[in-house]
Amino acid sequence: MTEQAAAPPVLAPVRGKDRIDVLDALRGFAILGIFYMNLPAMAGPVSAAMGNIRAMGWSPADQSAWLAMQTILEGTQRGMLEMLFGAGLMVTFAKAMTPDGPVAVADLYIRRNLWLLAFGLINIFLLLWPGDILHVYALCALALFPFRKLRVRWLLVIGLLFGTVQFAGSAFQYVSRTEMQATHATAVEKQTKGAKLTAEETKVVKEWQEKVDRINGKEPTMQKLDKDEARARSGSFGDYAGFWISTYILFVGKGSLLGGVIEAFGTMLIGIALWKLRFIQGGRTAREYLVVMVLAYGFGLIARYVGGLERMTFQPGPKTIWMTAEYARIAVSIGHVALINWLMQQGLGRKLLWPLLAAGQMAFTLYLMQQAIGLHFLYSPLGLHLPTAPGWAYLFWLASAVILFQLVLANLWMRWFQSGPLEWVWRSLAYCRKQPFRRLPTAG
Predict the structure, then answer these.
(1) Are 108 and 88 in contact (CB under 8 A)?
(2) Could you give the CA distance from residue 312 to residue 317 in angstroms, rounded to a whole number?
(3) 101-105: Cβ within 8 A, 24+ apart
C-alpha cells in the first residue's frame, strides 16, 4: 500500500472576512494612542519624558494633561499592543497548534519576526527613534512561539511574574524609604534646633538631598542630556541624528532594552491567555466585559492616579506606585480591551469604533509614520524645526491633531488598498512572494 503525501499548507496573510474586527479596532486604538506617549520625547526636552516632568511646562493645564495621560494611557497602549502580539500568534499560526503542525508555519513565523527586527533597527538608526518597540517585540517573538501550547493558568502565572517580582522588590524599597523619611524628618528637626546630627543622620540628609536633586533634574546625567539636546536641536541634521542615536545607547545602558523585553514577553503571554479565554477577540458576553472593565479600571486607574499624585509632590518619600506599577498597567490595558470589546457588541459603539478598523489594518505603517512626523517633519532641522514644546497640554492637542490626520488617511487608504504600504512590504518579504496590493472591486 502506498502512502499519499499530505498537501503542503497554503500560507497567506489574514484578509477580508477572515479578519477579526475587534482585533483591528484594538490595534487601531493602541497604535494611535501611543503617539500621546511618544510625542513628548520627540518634542523635547527628553529629560521631561524620563522623569523631570516639570521641564516640559507645569501650568495647571499641563498638570491636568500629564496626570490624565499617566493615569489612562502611559504604558497601556504598549500593553495592548503586547497582548495583541501574543493573540496574533494564535490567529496567524493556528495550524502549528497540532503536534505535527507544518514546519512551514514556524519557518514563516521566524522569518516574519526577523524582518520585524530589521524594521525596528531601521526605526532606531534611520528614523532615529530610541523608543522603538518593533525590535523589542521581534526579540520577544523569537522566544514566544514554544509557549503557545501552555495552559491559561501557567500563561498568566508567568505573564504576571515581572509584576510580582517588581511588587516584592518595591515593597522592601517602600519600607526602607519610609524609615529614611522618618530619619530625615528627625534630622531636619535637630538641625532647626541646632543639635548635632549622628553619622547616620548626616548620611541620610545627604542622600535625601541627592534624591531631591534627581527629581528636580539636577542629576549630572540628565543635565548633560539637556545640554547635548539643546546643542543638537540648534545644530545641523548630523548633530540631531547623533543625539538620538546616542540617546538610544544611553537607554540601553540604563537597562531599558532588557527591561522592555521582559515586560513585553510577559504581557504577550497574557495576550495568548486572553485569546484562549476567548476574551480579547470578542468571544465573551457583554456582561462579562462590563464586569472585567469595572474591576480592571477600579484597581488600575485608582492605583495609577494615586501614583501620579505621589509623583507630583516632587519629594523622595515612599510611593505606592513602585509596587503597583506593572499590575496597574496590565489592569488598565485589560480594561481598555474590555471596553472596546463591549462597545463593539453595541450598535452605536460599533459605529463609533468603526474608523479604528482601518487604522488597525495598517498599524505598522502608522507607527513608523508617527516617527517621520514627530522626529522629522515637526522637529528636525530639515523639517519645520519647531522649538521645544511649551507644555504637556500643548502636546496633547498637537498629538490629537496628528492622530486625527492618521485616522482619516487610514480610512481613505484602505478604500483602495488591501493593506498599508509597509504591511505590504513586510508580508511580501515574509512570504517571499509579492502580495496583492490594490483592493479589487466587489463582484456583482
Answers:
(1) no
(2) 11
(3) 102/8, 102/9, 104/8, 104/9, 104/11, 105/9, 105/11
Who's near 421: CB < 8 A, 6+ residues apart? 362, 365
DSSP structure class, residue 417: B
CB 385 within 8 A of CB 379: yes
Of the candidates 337, 356, 324, 342, which has an alpha carbon nearest to the alpha carbon of residue 274?
337
Q: For 2-47, how does the pLDDT look when each residue is reduced to its tens digit (9 = 90+)? A: 444 444 455 555 555 457 899 999 999 999 999 999 999 999 999 9
- The residue-averaged pLDDT of 171-200 equals 94
Amino acid at 32: L
Q: What is the pLDDT of residue 222?
A: 85
Nearest-5° Cα angle at 265, 113 to 148: 75
Inform me whether the pLDDT recorded for 329 exceeds 90.
yes
Output the nine-digit C-alpha cell for 164. 510580582
What does the alpha-carbon distance between residue 14 and residue 289 come to, in Å, rounded to a whole number? 26
pLDDT for the residue 107: 80
